[in-house]
Amino acid sequence: MLDAFDRCRLHDDFQPVTELGAYPYYRPVEERLATGEVVVGGRVLVAAGSNDYLGLSADPRLKDAACRAIRSLGAGTSGSRLVNGSLALHETLEQRLAAFLGQEAAMVTPTGFLANLALGALVGPRDTVLADQLIHASLIDAVRLSRARLRRYRHNDLDHLERLLDGCDPAAAGLIVTEGMFSTTGTLCDVPGTAALARRHGVRLVLDGAHDLGLLGPGGRGAAEHHGLLPAVDLHTLAFSKCFGTTGGAVAGPEQIMVYLRHHARSMVFSAALSPASTAAALAALDIIETEPERRHRALAAAVRLRADLAGLGFGTGASPTTIIPVHVGDVVLCCRLWRELFDEGVFATAMVPPSVPDGQALIRVSTTALHTDAQLDRIASAFATAGRRLGLIP
C-alpha cells in the first residue's frame, strides 16, 4: 500500500515563502493587550487581522466572569452535554441566546465549527443543500458528514440560486445555507432575496452569524436584523470566538429542532461540553453586546476610515460595508511578502491564500475593532503605504 504520510506536502506548498522568511502562519502571540495590540516575538504590534471586533477578548469583565466560573465549577466539564457535562450555566446561556435571537431555544456547543457541523444531522443522502460559494469550511464539512447533495451557487447570485432550486427533487428535503457576513470579503448576505426564495420554494434558511452577530443590526443581532428580517431565518448558528471574545458556539431555532440536534448531532453528542470559563465569558459578552452599542458603532466607523485610506493609496479593497477590509493582491508569494513587510512595520494582519480564497485571489485581510484608535488606524495605513510602495503594488 502507499504510505499515507507521502500525501503530506504542506512544507512543499509553502517552501517559496518560507525561504523568503515570509511564512505568515502559526505566529505565537505572547500577550493580548486591551489596547488593540498584541505582543509577538517580544514586539508590540497593532492587531489588524483579529476577529475580536468588539474588543472583548481582553475585557476585565470577561476575565472576571471566567475566573469566577473556574473557582466554582472547575477548569473543564469532564464529559459531553448528553451524559454528565451539562451545566446550569450552559442552560442560562442558551435561554439568553434564544431570547436575544427571537428563537424558541438554543444549543451551546464547544466551538463554532461544531455548531455548524451539527447541521449535518438535519439532512441525508437524498436531500439537497444549496450553499453560497463562499461559505465556511465547517458548513461544507457538515454537508459531507450528512452525505446530502451539495449544490453551490455563485456568491450572492440569486438568479443562480433560483435555477438550482428549480432543479431540486420536490420529494427530498432542502436547506439553503449561507453566512450573514462573509469572513474573507466582509460582504453581507442578501438576506431579503435569499429569504424570499426560501419561502417560495418551501426550503429552510440557515444563517451562519459567526462574524455578524454582535456587530450588525440595531440590537447587534446580525445581518438578518440589519435587513429587518430576523424572523425570516429558520436556524442561526454562531461562534463566540468573534464578537463574544471567547470560544464556543451555538445553534438557535425551534425547540423541537434543538431537542433533535441534542440527540442526533454527532458534534454535540460526542464532544466534551464547553468549559465553565468560556460559558461564563460568553454570558458576560452578551450583557455587553446588549448594553454597549457604541462598541459596534466604533468598530464600523473605524473600518470606513481605514478602507478610505487604503483605497486612497491605490489598493483594491472591494466594497465591504463591514469591519473586514480585503486588500486584494492575487499572487500567493506576493501576498505573503506583503504580510511580512507589514509585520516588520509593526502591523499584524492576516494573509488569506487558497484554499481559503479561490486560486489567484490571495489577499491581506484587515479588520477593525472597537479598540482601534485613530492613531492606530493611521499606523496601519502608513505601514501599507510603506510596504505597498516597497513591493511595487502602489505608486
Q: Which characteristics define this entry?
A:
395 residues; alpha/beta; four-stranded mixed sheet; 14 strands; 16% strand; globular
Number of strands: 14
Largest sheet: 7 strands, mixed
Mass-distribution shape: globular
Helicity level: 40-55%
C-alpha-based Rg, rounded: 21 Å
> Runs with pLDDT <50, length 5+?
none
Question: How would you describe this protein?
Answer:
The protein is an alpha/beta fold. The protein is built from 14 helices and 14 strands. The chain has helices at residues 10-19, 60-73, 88-101, 112-117, 137-146, 158-166, 191-201, 223-226, 255-264, 266-269, 276-291, 294-313, 332-344, 374-390; strands spanning 31-32, 37-40, 43-47, 105-109, 128-132, 149-153, 174-179, 204-208, 235-239, 249-253, 324-330, 347-348, 350-352, 362-367. The longest helix has 20 residues, at 294-313. The mean pLDDT is 96.
What is the structure about, briefly put?
The chain is α/β, with parallel strands linked by helices. It contains 14 helices and 14 strands.
Helix/strand layout:
Layout: H1 10-19, E1 31-32, E2 37-40, E3 43-47, H2 60-73, H3 88-101, E4 105-109, H4 112-117, E5 128-132, H5 137-146, E6 149-153, H6 158-166, E7 174-179, H7 191-201, E8 204-208, H8 223-226, E9 235-239, E10 249-253, H9 255-264, H10 266-269, H11 276-291, H12 294-313, E11 324-330, H13 332-344, E12 347-348, E13 350-352, E14 362-367, H14 374-390
Parallel strand pairs: 3-12, 5-6, 5-7, 7-8, 8-9
Antiparallel strand pairs: 1-2, 2-3, 4-10, 9-10, 11-14, 13-14
